[in-house]
Amino acid sequence: xxxxxxxxxxxxxxxxxxxxxxxxxxxxxxxxxxxxxxxxxxxxxxxxxxxxxxxxxxxxxxxxxxxxxxxxxxxxxxxxxxxxxxxxxxxxxxxxxxxxxxxxxxxxxxxxxxxxxxxxxxxxxxxxxxxxxxxxxxxxxxxxxxxxxxxxxxxxxxxxxxxxxxxxxxxxxxxxxxxxxxxxxxxxxxxxxxxxxxxxxxxxxxxxxxxxxxxxxxxxxxxxxxxxxxxxxxxxxxxxxxxxxxxxxxxxxxxxxxxxxxxxxxxxxxxxxxxxxxxxxxxxxxxxxxxxxxxxxxxxxxxxxxxxxxxxxxxxxxxxxxxxxxxxxxxxxxxxxxxxxxxxxxxxxxxxxxxxxxxxxxxxxxxxxxxxxxxxxxxxxxxxxxxxxx
Length: 390
Description:
390 residues; alpha+beta; five-stranded mixed β-sheet; 10 helices; 31% helix
């Protein structure tokens, strides 16, 4: 159940001292081939971390042999020195892999770099580079779980997923618990597959998967500087799935990881699915769902177990989606508390005692729909984010 489930991949996670204690904080994922095709999607934030800028350059060539990741520091808003440190990390990783027990013909331009942690501070390179060396020595075909653990920040659990096809598979790992918002939701994700796939097929599969999964989780409306999702393919299974099969498998892994991300969101006591139905367009459905997901009055009401449908309807009204206010219906956990823009079933019938909450908003404008996943806004979320850098 990890990035090393597909054939031809090795991984490792080690403690380099970037985080306090003996927690793992440097991860490495290596593609042993025979192919090294890759695709990636990155944060839409205009303030991009140095590793994002570096990895975007690497991905232009469509080839990635290794991904080195660290927690304990985002290397974001660190100026030219931060970019030089990212370049040095890629150079060091490539050199260590060329001289390893299973040498790879690899250069810095074949290495993607990802970082996560506090924004605005330079990485301690005297700790990071020895950590990279240790990770290259620890590489194994069952090292995926350790790698997933090494990229955790405020996550409480590592996140892994696998989907198997007919003789091929897709594996993945992710981190993310706060700043969860499009685009992509705040995360680092590495996906691997041993399927045979060209650059265009891989890119199309990843972008469609991301659109339907990571771009539809929104815990707190805050977009990161470091979001990166990478998909590596090596063809080791010698099976070439159809585009539909590849996209479906990648989407299934991304959906699994996305649900794990939202379930582990900082301070969350509710796991909320907002289903927008009867929209004139998919874009309308997404806009409405996201407006409800980001509404602090809705989120605090649900934290207090209050099915306050008036706040939901008010959030819908802030959008540009096509709808008539006196035709909108709203249900909370299956109870239609609002019909035609007015009170309907008794709100006391709504059971909010559990963790899972489903909100349905029917616009009665068409046949399109979308689901946005979010969380409530709790005391614990405020406390964790007020104390994060101290």
